[in-house]
Design brief:
One of its GO terms (cellular component) is plasma membrane. Belongs to the binding-protein-dependent transport system permease family. This protein has about 325 residues and is an all-alpha fold. The protein has a single domain, classed as MetI-like fold. The chain has 14 helices and no strands.
Length: about 325
């Protein structure tokens, strides 16, 4: 019997197929992608397991003592063994607060990108498939949206929302406000990309065959045309998660995002900024380093994915 003969039950798993594909081969041969993925997984898993890994709960007032405020990290004289990375101005353990804050920043980033993708993909599919005046109208709306920066739209919306509902209500639902405004502000990136793919695909024979078989426009767009747009969508989503995290951090730093009682990386940096020149630099610097590293590895993974999924750039 030949050694290449497949025996029953030896079909490779989905993970094995991906690992042995061009994407898996490129990943194994790219040390930057491997290191970036390892760092991202460490940060993401640690933040998701923050209730188990964090020695203190920053949301529990009973575990916070104002008398423990501004203790330095372990490598600085005057530190306490209970607080490895020191404490912030409220007496919260900085390690625990960073874990919870990173989880919140990742949650806002991923949910905002999911909203962007849903709006942008839907609008792009409809604009490209229907065409005509509807296409022109939707693309002009996208152009208008792109003419305004995300931060400018978010600042105006959140400032008005805070004034309308009051600070207490705003702080209670700040997560949802941030997801909504960041998601709505960035949908044109997806819409323009998906529309370009639809315009190229809708004239091909497989689309005509689907129409002859009696499939409706919705099924043709979602089941037949959309899968051909997944590669650029994955690349955009990776970069947009990093952009959404930066937007959340920027808005929280300006006081229009997460309140200090619900720590995110942005609100942590903001709360410690007043103390950076008074000697308590760690309150701002350590969360800032975590934010920079997180955004950097996500962008590096996005660059690698763009090169692999683009046949004109991928060289094997």
């Amino acid at each position: 019997m030949s050694s290449n003969t497949m025996t029953p039950g030896t079909e490779p798993s989905h993970f094995a197929k991906i690992w042995n594909s061009n994407i898996g081969y490129s990943f194994r041969k790219n040390p930057v992608a491997i290191v970036s993925m390892a760092i991202f997984l460490i940060i993401a898993i640690s933040s998701l397991l923050s209730p188990l890994l964090a020695p203190f709960d920053p949301y529990d007032p009973a575990s916070i003592d104002i008398m423990n405020s501004e203790y330095p990290p372990f490598w600085v004289d005057g530190s306490l063994p209970d607080f490895s990375l020191g404490t912030d101005d409220q007496g919260r353990d900085l390690w625990s607060t960073i874990l919870y804050g990173t989880r919140l920043s990742l949650l806002i980033g991923v949910c905002a990108v999911a909203l962007q993708a849903f709006l942008g993909i839907s609008i792009g599919l409809i604009a490209g498939y229907v065409g005509g005046r509807l296409d022109s109208l939707l693309m002009r709306l996208a152009d208008i949206q792109l003419s305004f920066s995300t931060l400018m739209v978010a600042i105006i919306f959140l400032a008005v929302t805070q004034a309308m509902f009051g600070s207490e209500t705003f702080n209670q639902y700040a997560v949802f406000f941030l997801i909504a405004v960041i998601g709505v502000a960035e949908w044109p990136q997806y819409a323009r990309t998906v529309r370009a793919t639809v315009l190229a695909e809708k004239k091909k024979e497989y689309v005509d065959s689907a129409r002859v078989l009696g499939f409706g426009p919705g099924r043709i767009m979602v089941r037949h045309i959309l899968p051909n747009s997944l590669s650029p969508i994955f690349v955009i989503s990776t970069v947009q998660v990093a952009n959404a995290i930066i937007s959340e951090a920027s808005l929280s730093f300006l006081g229009l995002g997460m309140p200090p009682s619900q720590p995110s990386l942005g609100s942590l940096i903001s709360s410690g900024f007043d103390y950076i020149f008074s000697g308590s630099w760690w309150i701002t610097v350590i969360p800032g380093v975590v934010l920079v590293v997180l955004v950097l590895v996500i962008n590096l993974l996005g660059d690698w994915m763009r090169d692999v999924l683009n046949p004109k750039l991928y060289k094997g």
